[in-house]
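dude i think i finally got it to work??
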Amino acid sequence: MTDQQTLPATEEQPERQPVPFPAETVTPRPRLRAALRWVAAVAVFAITGTGTAYGITLMDRTEVPGLATRSDGRWDYPELVKPPLPSGSPGPVAAANKAGAHYADLRALVLPAPRGATPDPALKGDDGWVTTKDFLAPYTEASRPALRQKLVDYGLRHVAARGWTTPDGTRTRVYLLQFDTAAVAEGLLNKDLVSYSGPRFPLTGAASFNQEDDFVGPTVKGVTPVYFTEVKPYGKEQLRMAYLGAGDTIAMITQSRKGVARAVPFWQTLTLQSELLG
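look at this
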């Protein structure tokens, strides 16, 4: 018998796992790529536009290029702050204030000069007060004695003033005259200082006036404005002037300028001074 050859036992081979193929990298198609780029661009523009719109809402119109409004001629005055009243004192238009008295410091009620203006040293005064002579300076030499006597007769107490010249050459003078009561100040203003045709006491360099027709004066409670404009022929300069009756105080304001005295800053000055006195 032939011996059967026994083959050596073989170890069980582990089952082979299929080798995975490398993951396929998906490349966007050309049209899809273009669409994605547009979506991204729109998103960026939307975010940027929103930020720009928000920024514009925080800006003044004059700060936005293309939207800046042309100046109408108004001056840049500092913020007005009324001086404090002494404790327990009523305001000039309060019902309890029968005399219409301004109990606040009169010097603090004079309108401040606009930004960029040059102060008038002639109206600096002594500790803020100016003399009757300083007030009479704008009037003609012939009219000063009579006006001085009127001020004495009505019992003028104080005169506070301020003057300035703006870069466009406009010269402004503001005087505040204080009397004992509103009745006294009103009597001087209505009976002696103004008439329908103009100021009763002429000012130097101004021959004739018309009452301003194109401007409705400041409507501030307790303040009565009367304003005039020099008419042609007025020489090298034109003059505008006004009186404001405000309780026990009369304001006298003049503005003069070579060529034409502009209306807008004149009306603005009257309105702001009225707000301080009212």
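The chain has five helices and nine strands.
im so relieved honestly
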